[in-house]
Amino acid sequence: MMAYRFSETHPMHPLRLDLTIRLARELGLLDRGSLTLVEPPVATDDDLAAVHDREYIAAVRSAGDHPERTDEAHGLGTEDNPVFAGIHEASARLAGGTLLAAESILAGSALHVVNFGGGMHHAVRGRASGFCIYNDTALAIQRLLDGGVSRVLYIDVDAHHGDGTERIFWDEPRVLTVSLHESGMSLFPGTGFANEIGGPGAPGTAVNVALPAGTGDSGWLRAFHAVVPQLAAAFAPEVIVSQHGCDGHRSDALSNLCLSVDAQRQNALDIAELAARLCGGRWISTGGGGYNVTDVVPRVWSHLVGIASGYPVPVRTPVPRPWRDYVMERYGARTPESMGDDVDLWWRSWEVGYDPADPVDRSVMATRKEIFPLYGLDPWFD
Question: Taking the complete model, does pTM exceed 0.70, yes or no?
Fold first, then answer.
C-alpha cells in the first residue's frame, strides 16, 4: 500500500500508513485475538467498473505508463493528482482493500473491517480529484448492494466534503450518505451545503452538515449528535461504511477546523455504537485525509483500529517509547507523549436548545430543516 506515492513532497504521503501500522503494533493492537491482518488484493478492472467508467480506468492505466503526460479531462497529471509510474496498480490495491472488507462482511467472516489506507472519497465515476484516484468507499458500498444488502449508511467525518461518494450514489435510495465537514465556502471542494439532498429518485439520501471554519470539538460533536443518530435510526441501515479522514485536527495545514485527537476518537466510538445498535455491528471503516503525518494521523487511526477490534485505547495511554524514538531517529520529529490531546470533550446536547446566533447551530438547523421532514422527523425537536 506504500506504493500510493504521488511524490516525496505531496501531502498524501504513504509515510502516514507506515507510521500508523508501526504505532498500532507497538500498542499491541495487532496481537489481539479478535484481529486478523490480511493483505489487500489489487482490484480488477471489472471490480473498478462497478462505479468507474471503463474509459477512465484505461486512462489511469495509460497515465502510469506515460507519467510525463497530463490528462486534465480525467483529473490526472494535475497539481493535486500528479501521475507516477504504477498509479493504476497502487490505486487499485487501496480499492481492493475496501472491497475485501465488503466481501468479508457479506461472507460473515468479519464484523468490523478497517482499511486506513482507503477513504478516497473525492474520486467520481470518470475523474480523479483531491488526491483520490479510485473511490474505494463507493466500490465497497456497491459491492454490498450487489451482495444483497438493502440499505447502506455512509458516514464521512473528513474535514472535506465527501463529494465523490455522494455523487456516485446521488440518485440511489438504498444509500444514505452523511458528510460532516468544513463549509465549502472556505474549503475544497466547495460543495456540500445543506440544500444538496440527493437526486429526484432519492431525495433526502444526501445529508450535508457544512460547519464554519474554526469549529472545535464541542461544536463538531454537537453537530454530529444533532443529525447523525436520528437519521441513522430512521434509515435503518444493514451495514455502515465510514470515512475517518483526520485532517480536521487543529494542527492540520489543509483545513481550518480545530478538532482534537480525542474528538476524532469519540467520533469513531459513536459510529461503532450506531453499528452495534442498528445493524448488528456490521461496520467498514476507512482512513482518508490527514496531513500531520507524525503527530496526528498515526494516533487517530490507531484509535480506530483499537475501537474496531473491541479494545479502545484510552486517551491517557502513553505513546510507546520505541515508536517515538523511531520517528525522531528516522524523521527528526518529536511526537506527542500521550494518545490523546488532554482536552475536555463536553458538548451541549441539541435537546437542551439551540442558539440562532451561533454559526454552528445555524448550520445544524439548515440541515435538519432540509432533511428531517423527509424522514417524518421534526427539525426543531427530534
Answer: yes
